[in-house]
Amino acid sequence: MRAFLASLLLWLPLLGAPAFAVAPDEVLDDPALEERARALSAELRCMVCQNQSIDDSDAPLAKDLRVLVRERLVAGDTDGQVIDYLVSRYGEFVLLKPRFAWHTLGLWAAGPIALVAGIIAIVLALRNRSRRGFPVAAAGSAKLSEGEEERLKALLEKRDGDGQG
């Protein structure tokens, strides 16, 4: 029981870590603006952590960005204007989900291209294998020749005769 409680105490801070990222002094009084700020913060990358949104990050730069988002919303900016402002200041890397544009086409196309290339590679490998005399067959469908069956039988009898069976 004591070990369980100790492990629970170790894991407990990790389970709630993202919830502690936004400090109480950052929260806006207007619930609608705060909801918009949280939604925007979830779409923006922490430039320090790079794998977290600024909403989840405890880094000082993430806090600065969260405050900046809230300041822009209070000033009356739309969500799009806030995003455009941050992109103009930090580049598109600040977006967790990059925009679809000509200069990001390679990024968006890389996944489907890799999938198609992998399927083509598998088909070509299977085709080459069957041409070289290695038939593509289901497991267990290959039959042994009579000589192979006799040799297998002799090996099994030898093994059983040695007392290993």
Helicity level, as a percent range? 55-70%
Average residue pLDDT: 81
- Rg, alpha carbons: 30 Å
Q: What overall form do the CA principal axes indicate? A: elongated
Please state roughly what percent of the residues sit in beta strands, choosing from under 5%, 5-15%, 15-25%, 25-35%, 35-45% or over 45%.
under 5%
Poorly predicted tracts of residues: none
Major sheet summary line: none
Number of strands: 0
Structural class: mainly alpha
Count of alpha and pi helical runs: 6
Distance between the termini: 47 Å
Q: N-to-C SSE series?
A: HHHHHH
Describe this structure in words.
The chain is an all-alpha fold and 165 residues long. 59% of the residues lie in helices and 0% in strands. The protein is built from 6 helices and no strands. Helix 2 crosses helix 3. The mean pLDDT is 81.
Strand and helix map with partners:
Elements: H1 2-15, H2 31-43, H3 60-74, H4 79-90, H5 105-131, H6 146-161
Helix pairs in contact: 2-3
Question: In a nutshell, what does this entry contain?
Answer:
This protein is mostly helical.
Provide keyphrases for this structure.
165 residues; mainly alpha; 6 helices; 59% helix
